[in-house]
Amino acid sequence: MRRLRSLELSVSIKARIVSLTLALLFVATAPPIANAAPQEKEAEPVEVKPPELSRARVVSPEPVCLRPSTVVCEDFEKPNRSSWGDYKNAAFYVEDDVAFGGEQSMRQYYDRGQAAAGWLAWHFGDHPDSRVRKGTTFDEIYFRFYHRFQRNWPDQFPPKLARVRSRYVQGELLYAWEEQLMVSARMPGGTAISLPISGLAEPGGTNHQGDSKLRWLEREALNLRFAEHPGEWVAVEMRVKLNTPGQNDGRITYWVNGNLALDRTGVNLRGAYTATTINEALLEAYWSGGAPRNDLMRWFDNVVIATEPVGCAIYTVRKNDLKDQSAWQVQVATARNESAIVWDSGNVPGVGAQIDISAQAGTFADGADRCLRPSDKYVMRARHAVGETWSEWSEWKAMFK
Asked: How far is CA 315 from CA 57, 75, 154, 332, 357, in A?
C-alpha cells in the first residue's frame, strides 16, 4: 500500500512540473499586447558650446545721427564738406591712419615751431554763412567730439581745443564777423578748462581780447588732464545754454567720457540782447608759441552737434547664431582685472545675436566710464543657453583691435 501511494505522489509531482513548463513556454512565445505603452527613451543631455564674439565696433552713422535733435553729424567716413562752414587746412585734414570708430578721422600734424594749425567750424541756424538749419534760432547746443593725442606726446600741449560761439556780420563785410559770445574749451598745460566770454546788451566789438563790449567770465578747470590719457580717445561734450535775456540763468556743462566734469549755472552770456543765438561750433588746433618738436599728431573724430544731450558713441558686439537659443549674456571687464566687471547685459532672453554696450541695454558698474574707447583696457566674454542649459563662458577676448 505504501509503495502504491509513493508511486501516485511521484506521478502527481511530474504532472505539475509538465504543466508549469508548458505555461512558461506559452508566456515566452505569446505575441506582445497591442495596447502596451512603449518604454520612453531617456533624453540625451544638450551640449551648448560657448559663443564666438566679434570685435566691438561703432556703427556709421551713429544712431544719434538719426534723431530730429541732431544738427550736425560728422564721423569723416564720408565727409559732408557741404556742412563745413569754415575750414583752414594748415596740416589739418582727413586721414585714414587712425580713427575712433571707422577708418578715417581729422588729423592735425605739427612741425617744430608751428603755431597756426588749422580749424574746422560748422555754421548753422542764423549764422551769416549758415550751412545747416538755416534761419533756425538756437539758444542751447550740445557739442560732442572725440579727441586723441599720439601715444608718445611730450608734456607740453597746444592750448586750443574747441569752442561754441555766436557770430554776426558788421555791415556788409562777411570777413568782418564779430563775436557776441564764446565758450571755449582749452587745455593750458594739458589740463582742460572752460573759458566763457560774454557779450553785453549790444553786439560785441572786433575781437574778444581787447574790446570793452565783451567781458571775460571766470575760467574753471575740468576734471580732465590729457597727460593721463596718452594714446587714448577721450570723449568731450559741451553744453552751452544761453540765459533768458536780462536774467542770470544760463548754463555751461561739460562731460568727459560720459562723466560730469563741470556744471556752471547762473551764467549771463548775452545780457539783455534778444537777437544773440548760438550759431557756430569749432574744432581748433592753434599752438601759442609753436610746437616744441616735429612729427606731433592729434586727432578729432565722431563730431555731433545737437539740441539734446548726445552721450557716448555706442559700441555694438555680435556673436554667432545658436539654434533654439533661449537667452544670452555679455560682460565687459578691465584687462588688468577680469573680475572687475565694467558692464553687464544681464540675461537677455530670446534668439538675438547683437547687442549695444550701453546704459539702455545693460548696467555699468558704479564709477565706471560710460564711454568705452578703443584701447587695450577692455576685454569681453559671453555665454548663451538652450532651454535651461547654459554654455560655459567664452574666453576673455580683447574688445578692440
From this structure: 5, 14, 30, 12, 5
Quote the CA–CA distance of 61 and 358 in Å, as a whole number.
Answer: 17
CATH 2.60.120.200, the chain: domain bounds: 68-306
**Residue 15: Cβ within 10 Å count:** 10
Query: Which phi and psi (to 5°) does residue 224 adopt?
Result: -155, 120
Q: Tell me the CATH architecture of domain 68-306.
A: Sandwich (2.60)
Closest CA to 119 of 286, 290, 297: 286
Question: Is it true that domain 315-398 has CATH number 2.60.40?
Answer: yes
Residue with cell 520612453: 40
pTM: 0.82
Residue span(s) of the chain under CATH 2.60.40 come to: 315-398
CB neighbour list of residue 38: distance below 8 Å, 6 or more residues apart: none
CA 300 to chain centroid, in Å, comes to 15
| Interacting residues of 256 by C-beta distance below 8 A, sequence separation 6+ | 192, 222, 223, 224, 234, 235, 236
Q: Give tens-digit pLDDT for 187-216.
A: 988 888 888 887 653 444 444 444 546 677
Q: How far apart are the first and last CA of the chain?
A: 109
Q: Which residues fall within 8 angstroms of residue 118, CB to CB, at 6 or more apart?
A: 87, 88, 89, 90, 91, 92, 93, 108, 284, 285
Whether 261 shows a pLDDT value over 70: the answer reads yes
C-alpha cell at 26: 506559452
pLDDT per position as a tens digit, 51-74:
999 999 998 899 999 999 999 999
Q: How many CB atoms lie within 10 A of CB 298?
A: 22
